[in-house]
Specification:
The complex is a heterodimer of chains A (571) and B (344). Chain A contains 16 helices and 19 strands. With 571 residues, chain A is of the alpha+beta class. Chain A is globular, with a radius of gyration of 27 Å. About 1% of the residues of chain A have low confidence. Chain B has 15 helices and 2 strands. In chain B, strands 1-2 form a two-stranded antiparallel sheet. In chain B, α6 packs parallel to α9, α8 crosses α9 and α14 runs antiparallel to α15. The mean pLDDT of chain B is 86. The chains are: A alpha+beta (571), B mainly alpha (344).
Chain lengths: 571, 344
């Protein structure tokens, strides 16, 4: 008996300390260390209103509350969601005024209570235009006025009842009491020393071009059991190869974006935790539908459509479809993206709530060189001499002069290896079809100048819409955005029915998801029928964390939503 | 000597003007514009873009922009207009121009451009100066020994080393060394200036560890050049009469090599070491990219990419001044080390 008791006691003495070692207290979960390949050595600001670029927005998202939080599993704005001040809101009948009820139990890190005054100050600062509100520029056009009702109630009146408005106004809120007035923000110490904040982390140190250090905030309301990590280090690492090597070597324990060419190495790393997801970014070839020799805006000053001469080659929809069918998109994804992507049927990403599943059956137009050849012949672009070295020529084509060779220039930006590989493959595949394409990678500034001027033929680029994702297309496919020098509808796409549906979906009363999804489904069909873009790929994203990172459970586009629960190895 | 220095400094003034004017023209002529780059976001309206362009002053002609950058605009008044375009008042400009020490504000960060640049000086100098000293010292020693042991194994080794260090690209060498010493062996950190610690604490040894690899990679070019120059210079001096005399007098080898030979062989080294000084300020972009070093190289590159004119011009001013200083120092040092040289 004594021996038995002794054995039990010995066992307890051995086991209990082990369990205690495994359990972490808040703030003892080590440091989350992430590499930042987009770090800017000329750091703009840690004030979310003055932050230019993702290097600072990643940090401000963790340091400041937002007006409306995002429900992580569903990726939609929701009352009471983590990080959001709004616990409820009501829309007026005309959909123009939203009255938000805010939490009244939160305090900034200096003890001052967070109130509706802070929200009002934040919005009014942007509306005053005394500061350049960087990534919140849309607030100026979206918000008409802000009315402070009481300490925890605020009414925001919009300029239009657009369904995208809530996304536009879900901005980070700053402490009003830190600043004398709006103009005081410019050049304020707050830019590089935001000592007053309220997020899962608070500011500790900034070394521009090297790293930013944040410390866990144990008062963060949405961390029921406390913020586990002691802190967070965001370390500049300009080279993506080095970033991956440092992650594999254990210097970083988390990465929110692994370059496609390195993903297999990360997968092969026996210990790394990996999360792969369909991202909301996609690649395409934009075809200039307007005549590059005579570019025009989409609308005149009175909002009337300006007639545009069509592009001599791409003005014919049969040619655009032929190009899509001449390209082995799956092969391009496999070779240029190392398989890290999927075919993109239309302008909406497959993970979107508005994605039209039926499209996959028919779009994009399948790879079929015979069908492409037939379309080109039908469109009057023929191989007149049987010589594969010479391009097709116009014989009875719709817009170009007779005898015009089928030649065009494809632009893309330098420094993007994947796009370079894609462009080379596209050139090769089109050459086999008798199409002579000049592939011109160029500096990004130069490319923007070319595409914005609309004096180009085609370009290879991608879109990466914001989060939370909204399928609205007015920002890049509306006639209002067809403006020379800066508009984003630089392909000059216009379809009367498409535009009408676009406005209907954007301003649908009540903004019901299912009803809007139906409209977008119709729009996607029209878009793929008209084909202003050749769809190439939807990007596959990858997050990775060290093997010993506990509590890591990302969602698509929300790699850090539960960072307060992570436990990293001690650093 | 003093007259020489003063004359050279006076000559430097039009040189600097020329450097800044050419740089400004090249920058202005580059495609794109800073306001478009900063506001390349579909959520920005045309009015916001125009306001930004106005704040940045990029809507003016290049000559107006250059003159404003040079002498400022606080000596003139500008109309203040309301939303309808009606003039409601006037206000004076706020810029003083570089001739009065005002380098303008960074377009991106909207704070003093020179402040942005100067913040990077410590990191740049730290890396570049140590690499320069290491490269110079190692190169001179290797070159001297190679000359002393001319024709021997060490001499052959130094020749191969020089070829290797000249031809191997710095980015490749940096990546390989990072892999070997950082990843495979885990002996050295793989980048940045300081250890990754929340507290920010570090020891001297940890700082040295962070410097070892980038300093070595950055110094390889210097080692190659200085070792070959030193070897050739020493062999040249060895054939001089006074060295033969020293040997005939029975002086020991140490006296011959160090007192009579090496010191005189250093004279031509001064002419190639001086121009290395501008690199101390200019930074080394590729090394900084590979080793995540927050130096001037990265800043200059990023500023050019984002067309942040004030920061670009601030770096041009600094590196231009460093270049002129470097060449002036070379001439002065040459006269110092060789009494036969008279500066005119």
């Amino acid at each position: 008996m004594k021996k038995y008791l002794f054995a039990v006691c010995l066992l307890l003495v051995l086991i209990v300390p082990l369990t205690l070692v495994g359990a972490q207290e808040p703030g003892e979960g080590g440091a989350v260390i992430e590499g930042n390949p987009s770090g800017s050595i000329n750091f703009s600001s840690l004030n979310p209103l003055r932050c230019w670029g993702t290097d600072c927005s990643v940090l401000t998202n963790m340091m400041f509350p937002t007006l409306i939080g995002v429900d992580p599993p569903n990726a939609v704005l929701a009352p009471g969601a983590p990080g959001g001040l709004a616990i409820d809101w009501e829309a007026s009948e005309d959909g123009l005024t939203y009255t938000f009820t805010l939490r009244d139990d939160l305090a900034w890190t200096d003890g001052e209570m967070i109130s509706a005054e802070d929200v009002a100050f934040t919005f009014n600062a942007i509306l005053s235009e005394e500061i350049e509100a960087a990534s919140y520029g849309s607030v100026v056009d979206t918000v008409d006025s802000v009315e402070l009702i009481d300490d925890s109630t605020i009414a925001i009146t919009l300029t239009t009842p657009a369904c995208t408005a809530l996304t536009d106004i879900a901005i980070r809120i700053i402490p009003e009491h830190v600043f004398v007035d709006f103009a005081d923000m410019v050049g304020h110490d707050f830019d590089f020393n935001p000592s007053v904040s309220y997020g899962v982390f608070g500011f500790h140190e900034l070394m521009a071009g090297d790293r930013v250090t944040l410390i866990g905030n144990q008062d963060w309301a949405w961390a029921a059991e406390g913020v586990m990590p002691e802190g967070y280090l965001y370390v500049d690492v300009p080279d993506s190869t080095v970033e991956v090597e440092r992650f594999l070597a254990g210097e970083f324990n988390f990465t929110s974006g692994v370059a496609t060419e390195h993903r297999n190495r990360v997968r092969e790393d026996a210990g790394a935790q990996i999360y792969e997801y369909p991202a909301n970014s996609w690649g395409y070839i934009g075809l200039n539908l307007g005549d590059p020799a005579n570019p025009q805006n989409g609308l005149d000053d009175d909002g009337n459509l300006i007639p545009q001469d069509p592009h001599p080659i791409f003005g014919d929809v049969r040619v655009r479809r032929a190009l899509q069918q001449a390209l082995d998109v799956e092969g391009i994804i496999d070779a240029a993206l190392f398989g890290e992507g999927s075919v993109m049927p239309s302008f909406d990403v497959p993970s979107s709530w508005a994605f039209n599943e039926d499209l996959k059956d028919n779009y994009p137009y399948p790879y079929d060189t015979e069908a492409a050849t037939a379309l080109l012949d039908e469109a009057g672009w023929v191989d007149d001499d049987g010589d594969p070295e010479t391009p097709r020529v116009c014989q009875g084509c719709m817009y170009a002069e007779e005898g015009t060779p089928f030649t065009f220039e494809l632009l893309t930006n330098e420094g993007n290896d994947a796009r370079y590989r894609m462009g080379v493959m596209v050139q090769d595949q089109l050459r086999a079809m008798g199409i002579e394409m000049t592939f011109t990678p160029m500096d990004f500034n130069t490319m923007i100048e070319n595409t914005a001027s609309q004096a180009y033929d085609a370009y290879l680029l991608g879109w990466s819409p914001g989060f939370p994702y909204d399928p609205d297309t007015s920002w890049f496919l509306s006639p209002e955005q067809d403006i020379i020098e800066w508009g984003f509808n630089d392909v000059s796409y216009y379809n009367e029915e498409f535009v009408a549906l676009q406005e209907e979906a954007k301003n649908l009363p009540g903004c019901d998801f299912a009803a809007r999804a139906e409209i977008y489904a119709e729009m996607q069909e029209i878009f793929m029928h008209d084909m202003p873009y050749i769809m190439i790929h939807n990007t596959q994203g990858m997050y990775a964390a060290a093997a010993d990172m506990e509590g890591w459970a990302p969602f698509p586009l929300q790699s850090r939503w539960n960072i307060h629960q992570w436990v990293a190895r001690q650093n | 000597m003093t007259q020489f220095v003063i004359r050279r400094l006076l000559q430097a003034i039009p040189t600097m003007f020329g450097i800044t004017l050419v740089s400004y023209i090249i920058m202005w002529a580059a495609p794109g514009d800073p306001a478009t780059l900063l506001s390349y976001n579909p959520k920005w309206s045309a009015a916001q873009r125009e306001a930004l362009a106005e704040r940045l002053g990029v809507g003016e002609s290049p000559l107006e922009q250059y003159v404003r950058w040079l002498i400022g605009n606080d000596w003139r008044s500008f109309d203040v207009v309301d939303d309808n375009g009606e003039v409601i008042g006037s206000e004076r400009g706020t810029q003083k121009g570089i001739l009065r020490g005002d380098f303008g504000n960074s377009f991106k960060a909207n704070r003093s451009a020179m402040e942005v640049v100067l913040e990077k000086i410590p990191a740049t100098l730290e890396l570049a100066f140590i690499a320069f000293v290491f490269g110079l010292t190692s190169g001179l020693i290797i070159g001297l020994i190679a000359a002393v042991l001319q024709g021997g194994l060490f001499d052959q080794f130094s020749r191969v080393l020089a070829v290797l260090f000249s031809s191997v690209p710095g980015f490749w060498l940096g990546l390989i060394l990072l892999l070997i010493f950082g990843s495979w062996l885990g002996w050295l950190p793989m980048g940045n200036r300081f250890p990754m610690r929340l507290s920010g604490d570090f020891t001297l040894w940890e700082r040295v560890q962070h410097l070892l690899l980038p300093v070595f990679v950055l110094s390889t070019g210097g080692i190659a050049i200085y070792s070959r120059f030193m070897r050739a210079a020493v062999l040249d001096v060895m054939s001089e009469d006074y060295v033969r005399t020293a040997k005939a007098k029975g002086l020991d080898n140490r006296a011959i090599w160090f007192r009579h030979t090496a010191r005189n062989a250093l004279i031509p080294i001064v002419t190639i070491a001086g121009p290395a000084i501008p690199n101390l300020i200019g930074g080394a972009l590729i090394i900084e990219q590979i080793f995540s070093w927050p130096g001037m190289g990265r800043l200059a590159f990023e500023s050019v990419q984002t067309q942040d004119y004030p920061v670009v011009m601030a770096t041009v001013i600094l590196t231009g001044a460093a270049t002129i200083t470097g060449y002036l120092l070379t001439d002065v040092l040459y006269a110092v080390v060789d009494p036969r040289v008279r500066l005119q």
